[in-house]
Structure to design on (133 residues):
């Protein structure tokens, strides 16, 4: 596994993020998904975030990204949701017949950490520290 680093630390922080369209409306097509991805990738560097993978279904998107320890994840998520909501409704006005209010995304989101080892393995490793072999 390749680790990222800066002057004082090494790290590997990856996250799986899911946004759902308001009311689970099935409005995301390939063109809209591409634009959502472009918006997210455009603002990501401002928050020390890099996209690793992106995909979509008709009513939600999945994003795998890496972050820096100083990344403000909640600020990035809010900026991403706000910018994409505003721009998608402006650039694809046909969406307004499905989403008539100002929101494109549901207020909630799912953010999961990703890692190589299961929690039980990490717990066992930490518990075994200091034991003589």
């Amino acid at each position: 596994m390749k680790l990222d680093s800066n002057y004082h630390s090494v790290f590997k922080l990856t996250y799986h993020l899911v946004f759902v369209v308001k009311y689970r409306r099935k409005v995301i097509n390939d063109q809209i998904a591409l634009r959502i991805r472009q918006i997210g990738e455009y603002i990501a560097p401002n928050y020390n975030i890099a996209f690793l993978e992106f995909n979509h279904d008709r009513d939600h998107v999945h994003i795998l990204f890496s972050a820096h320890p100083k990344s403000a994840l909640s600020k990035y998520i809010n900026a991403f949701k706000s910018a994409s909501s505003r721009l998608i409704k402006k650039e694809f006005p046909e969406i307004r017949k499905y989403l008539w209010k100002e929101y494109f995304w549901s207020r909630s989101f799912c953010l999961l950490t990703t890692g190589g080892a299961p929690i039980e393995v990490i717990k066992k490793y930490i518990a075994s520290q200091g034991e003589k072999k």
